[in-house]
Design a protein that fits this description.
By secondary structure, this protein is of the alpha+beta class. It contains twelve helices and 22 strands. An eight-stranded mixed beta sheet has the order 5-13-14-17-12-20-18-19. Strands 1, 2, 7, 8, 9, 10 and 22 form a seven-stranded mixed beta sheet that branches. A three-stranded antiparallel beta sheet has the order 3-6-4. Helix 1 packs parallel to helix 12, helix 3 packs across helix 5 and helix 3 packs across helix 12. About 50% of the residues are buried. The model has no long low-confidence stretch (mean pLDDT about 95). Bound molecules: flavin-adenine dinucleotide. Flavin-adenine dinucleotide binds next to helix 1, strand 3, strand 16 and helix 12.
Length: about 450
């Protein structure tokens, strides 16, 4: 049997490709989705805070893989903007990118997200306050679905799709090759299937695999960026004047010392800090729930510095991985340090963390981040914490907790045209796996864009 379309990966990119194909096709299409992880309800991270306290490096990470992809347990912050979250607009145009992000937002509302709040940063007094203090607030609309509603939307989408296209879970695609009929996919179990068109949406967790496909098929790529930093956790009251109005504020600061850019990322009001495992490397992240019953006392966000390398060094992700490995080596996973201890040049100890006025939401190993994070990056983060203290007094308190390391790995960017198609006709690469997107909204929108292109091609 030959499929019309094979989709590799059931994250937001893959799901919205399947959704749009099923929704808009005027004649029957045989669509198969291969996903190496589990169906949504079987995705369970073994960390229970009791018997299993930290990452045990499962073969398939339930946080990163399975229906819903890396976004399944995310905070569900759906940012409608071209200012961050990827460079989809560079391929498909700013107007179209925004239209598609809004379209996905409407789908999310129909599938369980109705009633969730849409925040906007435009023309706020906060923007002015930031500017007066050397900080720049980026423009965006953000819908906060929350981890709980995000899960419901995914459940509803799966119910709507499961009888109309074929989902094969626990089925990694090992190889993609050209075939006279289109593309031949070799599966992890050795089986081969053929599809006329193939959409690859393997996310960040599939970055190494994607590199292999590009190498094998001689598809040109670019790779030069990694973001390194820490996750900050502090009492929610310190940031409540920002988070109550904007939910998430993306703030950029240029350091005085090195003129490096440091930015806030993934802000989770009254949320929790979590660890994540990417290809066996444990890093830190955060999320929060829409349901007030699941709120914590703390707000967390990342402070990240982008490192872009020039020739001859090409392995920016390898650089980020080495720093994360160092923290894993010293702390057995994620390290936590009080800001007061960091600026005094001493490690945090379990006793100092216990006596802190901020109770950590993640059981991390107390340690010394200055032994892990390069000086230039750490200096930038410290400078930004003092800058944020001017708009949110208390940010630079001794008890503010810093978890490390947070690393945002960027996939190498695959060379794609305006249809997100490779030089091979009918072979598309979308979502975070393409290096073009880094967010739920851009990844989902890229899926819709490609599905519409496939429909135009197959129905012409
Ligand atoms: C903890 C956390 C919180 C986040 N919070 C937010 C947020 O609030 N807002 C936001 O915009 N973004 C957030 N993100 C990022 C967001 O989740 C991603 O940008 C988005 O999921 C990318 O979608 P994708 O479909 O491109 O890839 P993914 O979601 O990564 O999905 C790719 C899928 O492909 C599968 N796969 C990989 N290789 C193969 C293979 N060879 N064969 C078969 N299947 C394969 C993987 O198992 C995975 O399920 C968060 C990420 C994490 C980890």
């Amino acid at each position: 049997m030959i499929y019309d379309v094979a989709i590799v990966g059931a994250g937001p990119g893959g799901i919205y490709t399947a959704y749009e194909l099923m929704q808009k096709a005027t004649k029957p299409l045989r669509v198969v989705v291969f996903e190496l992880g589990h169906p949504l309800q079987q995705r369970k991270c073994p960390i229970d805070g009791d018997k299993v306290k930290s990452c045990i490096r499962c073969k398939t990470c339930s946080i990163m893989s399975g229906f819903g992809g890396a976004g399944a347990f995310s905070d569900g912050k759906y940012n409608i903007t071209n200012d961050f979250g990827g460079s989809l607009h560079a391929h498909i145009g700013k107007q179209r990118a925004l239209e598609l992000m809004r379209y996905v937002d409407e789908v999310n509302l129909r599938y369980g997200g109705e009633g969730t709040k849409l925040y906007s940063t435009a023309n706020t007094a906060i923007k002015q306050m930031c500017l007066k203090n050397g900080l720049h607030l980026l423009d965006a609309q953000v819908r906060h679905l929350g981890t709980d509603i995000n899960y419901i939307v995914l459940q509803n989408l799966y119910e709507a799709l499961k009888d109309r296209c074929e989902f094969r879970f626990g089925t990694p695609v090992a190889e993609v090759r050209r075939d006279p009929e289109g593309y031949q996919l070799t599966l992890g179990n050795g089986e081969s299937v053929v599809a006329r068109q193939c959409v690859i949406s393997v996310g960040r967790s599939g970055s190494k695999w994607m590199e292999g496909v590009c190498r094998a098929m001689d598809i040109p790529t670019l790779s030069n960026r990694v973001d390194i930093g820490v996750r900050v956790e502090l009492p929610a009251a310190i940031f409540s004047h920002l988070t109550d109005e904007l939910y998430e504020s993306k703030i950029v600061y240029r350091t005085e010392k090195f003129e490096d850019r440091v930015r806030t990322f993934c802000m989770n009001p009254r949320g929790a800090v979590v660890s994540e495992n990417t290809n066996g490397i444990v890093t830190v992240n955060g999320h929060s729930y829409e349901d007030p019953a699941r709120h914590t006392e703390n707000t967390n966000f990342a402070l990240l510095v982008s490192k872009t390398f020039s020739e001859p060094f090409k392995d920016s992700n390898g650089y980020g991985e080495s720093i994360a490995r160092l923290s894993n080596m010293l702390g057995g996973g994620v390290i936590v340090q009080r800001f007061g201890d960091l600026v005094r040049g001493r490690r945090s100890t379990p006793g100092r963390i216990r006596e802190s006025f901020v109770t950590p939401t993640l059981a991390a190993t107390p340690g010394d981040l200055s032994l892990v994070i390069p000086k230039r990056i750490l200096d930038g983060i410290i400078e930004m914490i003092y800058a944020l203290d001017k708009i949110a007094p208390g940010t630079a308190n001794d008890d503010t907790l810093l978890y490390g390391v947070e690393v945002k790995f960027y996939n190498m960017e695959v060379e794609l045209d305006e249809n997100l198609e490779t030089e091979y006709p009918g072979l598309y690469v979308i979502g975070d796996g393409s290096g073009v997107t880094h967010s739920l909204s851009h990844a989902s929108a890229s899926g819709i864009h490609v599905a519409r292109r496939i429909l135009r091609e197959t129905e012409a």
